[in-house]
Give the backbone structure.
Amino acid sequence: MSTPYDAAMRVALGEARAATQHGDIPIGAVVTTPDGRIVGRGGNARERDHDPTAHAEILALRAAARRAGEWRLDGHTLVVTIEPCTMCAGAAVLARVERIVFGALEPKTGAVVSLWDVVRDPRLNHRPEVLGPWDLPESLGAECAGVMREFFDLRRD
């Protein structure tokens, strides 16, 4: 099974792997236009930038908004390797992305399905569509989870 988001997820995986080069947790994200063009990308940079908000999703959303010339990203898709945290889920809602696609669950901090469902709270004025690992090719979801597992296994050794 393949999806329209597979290529974007592969780019996000590249961003995740690059984040490890400066000691950051390997999470990568891209933002695509309605026709699938990548207009923003980012990998975690909290360690590199000494910035607690330098999550992959935030960096990708910022880049996409700069490129669009506005903060509203109507019709855009946020593709991220790992389920977004509360900050990133909230930022996606505030940016008005149409959908969030993520590759692996994050049981400790996930705010899309694991701990909370921030993005589909009926009290909010905007609720993006959510596609998770169950909507992606199994190998792609496994790769997203595997990058995180490898990173933490190396740190524990």
In short: Strands lie at 28-32, 38-43, 77-82, 99-104, 129-131. Helices lie at 6-19, 46-49, 56-68, 86-94, 138-156. The two ends are 36 Å apart (CA to CA).
